[in-house]
Amino acid sequence: FTREYGVYSSGSSSPPSDRSKAKRNADGAGTGDDSGMSRFPETRTRPGVCIPWERKRREMPEILGNEDLVRRVWEDVDAFGNLYIWHCLLSF
User: Fold this and answer.
1) Coil, strand, or helix at residue 75?
2) Closest CA to 82 of 53, 50, 44
3) I need a labelling partner for 50 at 20 to 30 A (CA). Which of 17, 26, 39, 58 fits?
């Protein structure tokens, strides 16, 4: 509201620029071309994964036991890393 209709005490009294007047939805999300996740490039990593099993498998020596068990354990441990990153991001 202040950006659209008012001014800050230390700011200039000029009207806001056209860029700051982007249309907004009821939830506050922008509706312009430069808003949303569409401007970010897609990642090659699946959501919730830090290091994919396919990349980690290339770094490891030959697995003599059950490879599916090793993969499942790796993906579970990797998920904890992703959870930690999100916890730090959202908590602080």
Assistant:
1) helix
2) 50
3) 39
